[in-house]
Amino acid sequence: MQRDLKSILDLSTVDVHKILNLTQTLKNKPLSKNKFLQGKSVGLVFEKPSNRTRVSFEVGVYHFGGKCIYLSPGEINLGVRESVADVAKTLSRYLDLIVARTFSQETIEELSVHADIPIINGLSDLYHPCQGLTDLFTIQEKFEDLANVNITYVGDGNNVTHSLLIAASKVGANVTVATPQGFEVNEEILQQVQKEAEKTGSVIKTTHDPKEAVTGADVVYTDTWISMGQEEEAKEKLAKFEGFRVNRSLCAHAKENFVFMHCLPAHRDQEVCKNTIDGEHSIVFDQAENRLHTQKAIMLFLLDN
Fold first, then answer.
1. Which listed residue (130, 131, 262, 281) is catalytic?
2. Marked catalytic residue, from 52, 245, 291, 293
3. pLDDT > 90: what percent of the chain?
4. CA-derived radius of gyration, the chain
5. 291 labelled catalytic
6. What is the model's pTM?
7. Are 175 and 205 in contact (CB under 8 A)?
8. Looking at 4, 156, 218, 223, which residue is catalytic?
9. Whose CB has fewer CB within 10 Å in the chain, the N or C terminal residue?
C-alpha cells in the first residue's frame, strides 16, 4: 500500500517514534555505506523557492546512493501547463518518490490521489510536516523526555505552527501558541490536535498574550511573520504583530535553561531580536541540520526499507 506524508496527521504515535528513532540512528552514522536508494530516483516538484528543503533532500538522496531531480515552477507549472493529475501519473512512471513544495494543500492531496508512489509534503499553505518532525527530534535531543517538555510558539498561526502542534500532540508534549488577534491557528486543525492530545496527555493552549505563553517554557519558537506570497501585506501585518517579537525581555519569562528555535529564514529584529537568535540559547542551526537527518528517515519510512 502506498504511504504518503501529506501531514503528520497521516502518522500514528508509533510511526512518529519510529521516524524519530530512525533519525537518531541516521544522525549517528550520517554517511553510512548502506545505499538504501541505490537505483531509485526522487523528484522535487517545487512551486516555491527553497534553501533547506531542496538542499537537505538532495544531499539525503545522494547519501543513500539515489538520484534527485529538481523540477522548478517554470518546468511544470502545476495545474496550468499540465494538470496535477497528469503530472502525478506521469512522474509515477519515472520516479520512486515525489517531494512537493506547493502553495495549496489541495495540490498535495491531488498528487496523492493520482500518484502510484509516495508523496512527501515539503511545505504547503496548511502544513510543513518535515519541519514539524524535525522540530520534535531537535527538542528530543535537548530534553530527551518529550512528554515533560513545555513548548511555546509566538507569532503567526501558520503551516509551521500547525505541524508543530500536530507533532507534539502525537507524543504527549505540551504546546502553548500565542498569536495576535486574527492570526490564530486554523480552527479545524486545532480541533484535530485536541483529539490527539486527549489520547497522549498533551496540554494544548492558545492565547493572545505572549508573556503568559512564554512563562515556564522549555522551548521558545517563532517563525517569520511574512510568509512567501504575503509580501504585499507586510506593512499592515507588521503593525498587528507589535509586541510579539521574541527578545530578551520576553524570554526572561521562560525557564533559565530554555532553548530558542526558528525554522528559518529569519528576519532579525522583526520576529526575533539578534541577541536571541544569535545568543547562547539558540539552537536554530542544530534544527536546520536536523532537516537532513529527519528527511532521510522519512524517505526510508515511506519506502519501507
1. 131
2. 291
3. 88
4. 19
5. yes
6. 0.96
7. yes
8. 223
9. N
Average pLDDT over every residue of 123-139: 98
SS3 221: strand
Catalytic residue among 128, 245, 281, 293: 128
In the residue annotation, 131 being an active-site residue is answered as yes
**Mean pLDDT within 167-173:** 98
Catalytic residue among 101, 162, 245, 281: 101
264 forms beta bridges with: none
| Residues forming a β-bridge with 176 | 152, 205
CA torsion sign for 189, 261, 17, 227 is positive
Query: By CB neighbour count within 10 A (0-12 exposed, 13-18 middle, 19+ buried), where does 198 fall?
Result: exposed
pLDDT at 295 over 90: yes
Assign residue 234 a region: left if phi > 0, alpha if psi is -120 to 50, beta otherwise? Answer: alpha
C-alpha cell at 29: 552514522
Q: Which residue among the candidates 218, 263, 281, 293 is catalytic per the annotation?
A: 263
Least confident of 109-113, 284-288, 301-305: 301-305
